[in-house]
Amino acid sequence: MSHNDTVIKILDAAEQLFAEKGFAETSLRSITAKAGVNLAAVNYHFGSKKSLIQAVFVRFLGPFYKLVEASLDAHEKQNPGSILSPEDILKFVARGMASVTNGDRGRLAIFMRLLGLAYNQGQGHLRKFLKTEYTSLYIRVMDLIAKATPELNPVERYWRFHFMLGAAAFTLSSMEHLRAIVEYEFETSCTEEEVVGYLLPFLAAGIRAS
Amino acid sequence: MSHNDTVIKILDAAEQLFAEKGFAETSLRSITAKAGVNLAAVNYHFGSKKSLIQAVFVRFLGPFYKLVEASLDAHEKQNPGSILSPEDILKFVARGMASVTNGDRGRLAIFMRLLGLAYNQGQGHLRKFLKTEYTSLYIRVMDLIAKATPELNPVERYWRFHFMLGAAAFTLSSMEHLRAIVEYEFETSCTEEEVVGYLLPFLAAGIRAS
DNA sequence: TTTTGTTTAAAACGTATGTTTGAAACGTAT
DNA sequence: ATACGTTTCAAACATACGTTTTAAACAAAA
For residues A144 and A84, is the Cβ–Cβ distance under 8 A? Predict the structure, then answer.
């Protein structure tokens, strides 16, 4: 179908440009130019720029959400009532991300970039959208963390969760840039997997800090 | 002087609006309206919107930079050759921030917001600006961390430094929003100092994770 | 082939933005 | 008091944006 073709081309271009420049700084004209489609196609297929932004999110978060939920379900079924360690919880989430972004290197950065933008930027319509659509996964992960760190008081646990989120979103979204510095400064290359390999122990140590 | 008055009113308004909405989403008209000055004043006093953004940064980072440098100098003079722990290093930085943002509650969030935006957003002119103007402080703090964590390999230390930066920038910049959730969800209020009190141990544990 | 609904195309619309202009108001030193 | 450099002001300018419109191209069914 030519319909789907145009829609996908728009989503691909938008996803990339949003991550590069942010939402407000990315014009529909640059998106349609990159996608090689007509300007009016965005408003025709998505209705508005706002809806396009949300559509880009859905394409990312939807599969991620389902993947993590499914793998957690599977683990719970095989090990009923088991308590996961912080490291294990993070691995489940990281695996979900890896699956969603698989194939395209750099798509992890785009994912994180969009997440960070949605969290910080915006007049709230994106945040509200995230909140209403994906709270159940948030609650589930939070419950797992709570079981893994029973000695922690809930408020501090809440904040540590967001410290983790911030460390991940901030660094992984600027990964390309930060990796370039590593290459220049340390004369070593650095794969995405290595960075995640550095990140998870950092996060796990942080959340179980005494 | 009426000159300085207008300049300061513009900087105050811009700082706040930039932090609330981001750079591109904040118009000069909204800034001048909030400041109660004429629209043309921005271009008259600063030359352009870009220069205004940089001026807002300078007003923040300049004093912060000098404060941290000075307090580190003082400590080095009193305890020559001493090795600071990660916690101590973070305290020095945190104290510098507290001093710069003192008086205005919420100015810490603005500070972090701007830092995050400069790091993630922008076509590079801000990042280049930060890089050229404030690398010496970065190098100094990085050296202190290196001495505090000699067992860490330099590349992983580099990444952990940015994990810390990310955790701080992300959470503290959204502090207002996150604190509101805490109040709603846990029926407890949460001061800025408490959040920083939660943050520093998290960061310290992360950077010395084995 | 004709018809009907869907998708693309080019152009235009209205609005909001950053910037510039030229005159008025201001403060200050002579 | 006058003259001069500085600052303010209202208005206009050019441009870029999101969106709408109208017609053409297309695909599939009758």
Answer: yes
Q: What is the pLDDT of residue B37?
A: 96
Q: A1 pLDDT band (50/70/90 cuts)?
A: very low
For the cut 70, the answer to whether the pLDDT of residue A116 exceeds it is yes
**Would the CA dihedral through B169, B174, B65, B14 be positive or negative?**
positive
Q: Which of residues 37-56 of B touch strand D (CB under 7 A)?
A: 37-41, 44-45
pLDDT bucket at B83, cuts 50 / 70 / 90: very high
CB A92 within 8 Å of CB A71: yes
With 0.70 as the threshold, say if the pTM is over it: yes
Which residue type is seen at B206? G
- CA geometry: angle B72, B74, B75, nearest 5 deg: 65
Residue A200: closest CA among chain B residues belongs to which residue?
A: B206
Query: Residue B88 carries which side chain, given as an amino acid letter?
Result: D
Choose from A18, A53, A120 for mutation: most chain B CBs within 10 A. A120
Selecting from A117, A163, A190 the residue whose C-beta is nearest the C-beta of B171 gives A163
Q: Which of A173, A190, A208 sits opposite B120 (nearest CB)?
A: A173
pLDDT value for B115: 82
CB A210 within 8 A of CB A153: no
pLDDT of B18 > 70? The answer is yes
Q: Answer whether any strand D atom is within 7 A of the Cβ of A49.
A: yes
Q: Which of B10, B22, B19, B8 is nearest to B173 (CA)?
A: B19
DSSP string, B116-157: HHHHHSSSSHHHHHHHHHHHHHHHHHHHHHHHH-TTS-HHHH
How far is CA B92 from each of CA A9, B55, B73, B85, B130, rounded to the nearest angstrom?
49, 25, 11, 11, 20
Structure-derived torsion over alpha carbons of residues A38, A112, A150, B205, reported in degrees to the nearest 10: -170
- For residue A184, list chain B residues with Cβ-Cβ distance below 8 A: none
Q: How many residues does chain A have?
A: 210
* Closest residue by Cα to residue B160 from A130, A148, A157, A170: A170
Handedness of CA A107, A108, A111, A114 (dihedral sign): negative
Q: Do B162 and A178 touch (CB under 8 A)?
A: yes
